[in-house]
Amino acid sequence: MKAKHIINLHKGLCFPFVLSLMVIYHNFTIGPLVYLALHGTYGFLWLLKDRLYPDKQWEEEIPILIGIVGFFIVGLYWVAPFILISSGSEPPPVLIAVAIAINILGVFLHYTSDAQKYFTLKYKSGLITEGFFARCRNTNYLGEICTYLSFALLVQHWLPFLILGLFAIIVWIPNILKKDKSLSRYPEFEEYKANSGLLLPQLFNLLTVKAPSQASNQ
């Protein structure tokens, strides 16, 4: 099987899983409803993204056993809705508004930067130093972190934040550093690195320094 089959299965099951929890615990209050809308939509958009502009890193073939273990690992993301719905806690309106705003920003950054990367590399290989990647070398990861941060905020519990931190240490940070090492093979990388942030946008001299309009392997 391919790695993307496990990821896609998890994303596609987010909506029915959260809805099932709401039915089991008879909890259809505003908190769970907002969580269902945000995480469920995020999962469906992921499947649409995979159809329109798939990420080649998820095309890797993996053993079935590894895939099963991987599914249970990414299933840790479902701890957040379980705590929210089973506990009956109600996030305040201000927190809901903040979570929605962060979620919209995260999904936007994640999916649009992935689209730029896919279609740029489809027609020209090289180092992408413009658009979403002009000031941040990992805009897609930044967006993903924002998205899952918004889910954790709604729960108002320390455990989802701990899980988010574990994923950052085990998955995101190693991949980000691995990507930087790969991009360093390009002669222009050092200049690009000086004008861009690893995860957060480098805004210094934003109005005076133009990003090179070259195109890469992000």
Distance between the termini: 24 Å
The whole-number mean of residue pLDDT values reads: 92
- What is the tally of helical segments? 8
Largest sheet: none
Strand portion: under 5%
Poorly predicted runs of 5 or more residues = 205-216
Approximate shape: globular
Helix share, percent: 55-70%
Computed over alpha carbons, the radius of gyration is 19 Å
Order of helices and strands: HHHHHHHH
Number of domains: 1
Structural class: mainly alpha
The number of E-state strands comes to 0
Structural summary, described in words:
- By secondary structure, this protein is mainly alpha-helical.
- The protein has one domain.
- It has 8 helices and no strands.
- α1 (3-24) packs across α3 and α5 runs antiparallel to α6 (139-155).
- The chain is globular and about 60 Å long.
Summarize the structure.
With 218 residues, the chain is an all-alpha fold. Helices cover 67% and strands 0% of the residues.
